[in-house]
Amino acid sequence: MRILITNDDGISAPGLVVLDNIAKTLAGPQGEVWTVAPAFEQSGVGHCISYTHPTMLTKLGERRFAAEGSPADCVLAGLHVVMKDAPPDLVLSGVNRGNNSAENALYSGTLGAAIEAALQGVPAIGLSQFFGPKNYDIANPFDAAATHGAALISRIIEAGVQSNQDYGLFYNINFPPVPAAEVKGTRVAAQGFRPGTSFTAEPQLSPTGRPYLWIKGGDQHIATAPGTDAAVNLDGYISVTPMRADLTAHDALEALKVIQ
Questions:
Q1: Do you know which InterPro entries this protein is assigned to (predicted)?
Q2: What is the mean pLDDT of residues 167-174?
């Protein structure tokens, strides 16, 4: 198996080392793992692509590249430049430092890479590690992802879920905020919504009196509806959420026909 890995935390992020190990386990001794990751942190950029300016691509080692762009840019560089003669069988993105459950999925550069891969017709999975009091300060905060990631992805691949729709499937995996030994199992879960939680902007003044803003996140430990992603994560389970990039509100189509 040929696997392309990327992330949004940057080429030097510890989560990318965890993902590299997961990918090497999946690829096997006869497979290949290629890395194209952002040269600098790109958290929160979503599915941004840098089509208004060029993106520098630097080779750092064998099958290892850094791109001065977004995670989606990295996927495009991987598919159309780095691996153009023999494209990957799978794209993996992560392991993100922090969860991409619930509304976080909409901002996530980790999932932005998976979206782009799916739009290009390549199977893709985003992986994120939820943090909390039980795992934040342990020797390896990514313990749950490192221990359970490869086997879980193998099971997803073996399930053979196919999609013949124009917008292909990609998967959002979130590992719970506990050490690997305390993971209770896996739950296939819908994307949830944290009530009363959202990003905000806080104005401040610099020492020179100039105004600026800090963008602040909300409480990540508010549970979503029972059975949805963040709720099962906070209960100690890994969540697997199948997604696609079709943003149509299908439930509203019929009611809106009155305006035609």
A1: SurE, SurE-like_Pase/nucleotidase, SurE-like_sf
A2: 97
Task: Write out the two tokens for 177.
Answer: 């905020």
* 21 among annotated binding-site residues: no
Strands 2-6 and 32-38, sheet pairing: parallel
Tell me: is residue 43 an annotated ligand-binding position: yes
144 in Cβ contact with 179 (< 8 Å): yes
Q: What is the mean pLDDT of residues 189-205?
A: 94
Beta bridge partners of 59: 65
Q: What letter does residue 69 receive in the DSSP assignment?
A: S
The pTM of the whole model exceeds 0.85:
yes
* Alpha-carbon span 159 to 191, nearest angstrom: 20
What is the arithmetic mean of pLDDT over 144-151? 98
Class of domain 2-194+224-259 as given by CATH: alpha beta
Q: Please provide the DSSP assignment of 118-160 as one string.
A: HHTT--EEEEEE---TTTTTSS-TTHHHHHHHHHHHHHHHHHT
Q: For residue 30, how many other CB atoms are within 10 A of its CB?
A: 6
Q: Is 229 among the annotated ligand-binding positions?
A: no
Task: Return the structure tokens found at 115.
Answer: 């979206």
Q: Whole-angstrom Cα distance, residue 243 to residue 125?
A: 10
pLDDT at 257 over 80: yes
